[in-house]
Specification:
single chain; about 325 residues; alpha/beta; Nitrilase/N-carbamoyl-D-aminoacid amidohydrolase; 6-stranded mixed beta sheet; 5-stranded mixed beta sheet; 10 helices; globular
Length: about 325
């Protein structure tokens, strides 16, 4: 009997958040989930740090000037559990879809860049924290670790994700490859135009196509866009933001879905336009790609290996209690207003 492989529609979101506004951005997330589901999507992928927005000031100004915006970001970050998580959980359940949404996560006194994964029943399946924030981001976010670098076994296939420049780190790619990832959510902020110094096309597109080829996965790449609202927020809070103006004019969106052969499967939206792009996923096509190359399997080099530590690595170890990232839908309903 011929094996039946999952076939479904995936959605990659290209949109701006309601900048530094937790409640309004969560409401927008829920609306987008509903729109994507109404168009047949079974997996909805959101851009990097979508709730409540990417901290652009960490690249544009000194750390002292950006402090006032960090404070606002902190106050609007996502805690687990919370009303924000509950609302997204309910939207996933109401629309019977898998959701991957990247957030600024508040844990203890610090922030982390985190992809939250929800299943169609509304369960928070788990999360992935960016392993190493890039450049100026280290003023904003702490490091992730291997215990929060999952690949989920689902009826849609094995789902995983990374965020932004994580896709440029070969060991990250191999760690996901070693988990036999099949459908990958690549969460990116808005980006900048390609140039002769870097690449001729936006770097996130190049990264997504490389990742698809290197891992033989479908890559669902979601991106934000630069907007006047964000520029005005940065300028109003700090008196600065001039360096951001050119990016606003460009837009920076580049959402698309890539096949495991590196081919773009979706339309390309204008880089300053919000929208959702869709593509049909057929996991049977992975068989032919794995036949050619499987870097964690038959195409591996036994002389080159890596260790992947998936044990939790807390700075402070507490004894006598257990915790888990998995939150059943029913427990989500107990979150107080």
């Amino acid at each position: 009997m011929k094996k039946e492989y999952p076939k479904f529609k995936a959605a990659a979101v290209q949109a701006a958040p309601v900048y530094l506004n937790l409640e309004a951005t969560v409401d927008k997330v829920c609306l987008i989930i509903g729109e994507a589901a109404s168009n047949g999507a079974k997996l909805v992928a959101f851009p990097e740090s979508y709730i409540p927005g990417y901290p652009w000031w960490c690249w544009l100004m000194d750390s002292t000037s950006g402090g006032v915006l960090y404070h606002e970001l902190y106050e609007n970050a996502v805690q687990i559990p919370s009303q924000a998580v509950k609302k997204i959980s309910e939207a996933a359940k109401r629309n019977s879809v898998y959701v991957c949404v990247s957030v600024n996560e508040k844990d203890g006194g610090s922030l982390y860049l985190t992809q939250l994964w929800f299943d169609p029943v509304g369960n928070l399946m788990g999360k992935h924290r960016k392993m190493k924030p890039s450049g100026g981001e280290r003023l904003i976010w702490g490091d992730g670790e291997g215990s929060m670098m999952p690949c989920f076994d689902t009826e849609l296939g094995r789902l995983g994700g990374l965020q932004c420049w994580e896709h440029w780190i070969p060991l990250n790619v191999q760690a996901m490859n070693g988990q036999n990832e099949q459908v990958h959510v690549a969460s990116w902020p808005a980006f900048f135009p390609g140039d002769e110094v870097l690449v001729s096309t936006p770097p996130n597109e190049v990264s997504a196509r490389y990742y698809a080829l290197a891992t033989q996965t479908y890559v669902v790449m979601a991106t934000q866009i630069h907007t006047d609202e964000i520029l005005n927020k940065i300028t109003g809070a700090t008196g600065q933001g001039g360096a951001y103006k050119g990016l606003v004019d460009y837009g920076g969106g580049d959402a698309c879905i890539i096949g495991p052969n590196g081919r773009i499967l979706t339309e390309k939206l204008p880089p300053n336009q919000e929208g959702i792009v869709y593509a049909d996923i057929d996991l049977e096509k992975l068989v032919d790609c794995k036949y050619q190359i499987d870097p964690a399997g038959h195409y591996s080099n036994k002389s080159l290996t890596m260790n992947f530590n998936r044990r939790p690595q807390p700075v402070v170890n507490f004894f006598g209690g257990d915790s888990t990232d998995f939150i059943p839908y029913e427990d989500m309903q107990k979150v107080e207003e």
